[in-house]
Amino acid sequence: MFLAAADNAAWCRAVCRLHGAPGRLGPRAWTSGRRTPPLYPDAVTLSPDAVAADVLAGIDTEAAGASVKDSFARLDLAPHGFDMLFEAQWIHRPAHPPAPAPSSDASGGPVWREADGPEEFARWLHAWGDGDGSGPLTPGLLADPAVTVLGGWTAGPGDGGGPVAGVIAHRGEGVAAVGLSNLFAADGCTADAAWAGAVAAVSARFPGLPLVGYEHGPDLAAALRHGFAPAGPLRVWLAR
């Protein structure tokens, strides 16, 4: 749980930094005094000892859409004007020898590789669901050495094809794990095929490191089918 929360805070910070909101990293929470981009919290707790003041003092609680990721499901922010948006589970997959990523040559499925430049990243975003590229993820992520954008592609580089599955792998500084986020399946690719390909592709690039993240609902069930185990609850709170 601690590894997953630490990497997730670093990932949120990486995305928010590209939007001019790098925030402040403290001993018990990461917080941003500026509103963060959509889908990204204004604070992430890093310790089960964090209290409401650790997050509320560092964010703009009056801003529409202000949110807090309560990494250890310990906070009660209802008296402070927040409603619980959802609950989820941190997930952890121990390090395993990397399995070969699915290959179109062998199975007819997608080939997993990194997005090659802004044009392929734009196609990755479109497949993920950001049709016009106005969402929180920007091409600046490609220049971040801690970030690897992977897609399961049905066509080769430069031929106009797009991914039918994808994932972002993030290695936070000083964190002995790789965080997975934004995992998706599209255009007829099944969730199980996307999880299998993503796990194999990320494990091949980061051998010897466990994989972490968080999920809920059907995505949590898919993760558990592919070697992950629940590592503890979290909550996301949204200002009224």
From TrEMBL:
Protein name: GNAT family N-acetyltransferase
Organism: Streptomyces thermolineatus
Top-rank lineage group of the source organism: Bacteria
Region span, Disordered: 95-114
